[in-house]
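Recall that a protein's primary structure is simply its ordered list of amino acids. Everything else, from secondary elements to tertiary packing, is in principle encoded there. The following example makes that idea concrete.
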Amino acid sequence: MAVWTQRSSIMKNASFAVRTLRTLHRQVCDEEELQIECWPDTVISISQAEYGQPAAGRIQCLERREPPHHPSHCTPQDVREGIQSSCREKQKCHLKISSALLKEDPCPGVQRFLNVAFKCRPSKFFTRVVCENEKLKLRCRKSLRIVIYSAFFGSATSGADECPEVGGSKYEDCEASFATETAMNSCHGRRRCSLSADSIAFGLPPCSAKARMFLKVVYTCGECSHSEGAVSTKYRMVQNDCNLLSNNDKKNKFEHSTE
């Protein structure tokens, strides 16, 4: 019965995670304006941006005269850096789209379009780090809920101040797969939770026996709204979500009351 309750809670919280940290998409034609607007207290993070695909035949692009033949090298190019430099850390971003996004234009005169993917990430983060085999505890105020942005379990040559190299251990680059998803399943949408920094919880990273491993979680606290269909000032959590999360907190408290 306890196993089923845990699986049910994981499925509900995973669904909640998809809604709050989903990837959004925009397609914009030449000479039109890219308009991105995130929710209050979140900022734009560009995941992918490609420009250069010919727009001929696309309903959303206005027809105009095109060269009789498109050059074979008129293909999409990565323009993420340029879009990111204009939109980074902003809640709103407006940018006119043209071939000026490219360093060199391989097919002048051809109407093209931009395809961009982005997320609205929290503008305020909390970062917590614990060493291998330690417990990491996350907690938000009573009216707020945990929103996981990323998690890392393994080792990194960049190191972690909280976990210095000791006893012959050393930093190396290796990490467990799906650490973020694991942290989301356990904590996303709860008021408080505890994560074990070990291979039982996160799986065994492809590290050497001497690797100095640690768990790093980046998260924020999001508000619940208090009326059906309302949107919070931080994340879209309607009253049903709040009721669900409150019930999960009660179950979690009951299940771990003997600790």
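Residues 1-20, 225-259 have pLDDT under 50 and may be disordered. The first helix runs from residue 2 to 20.
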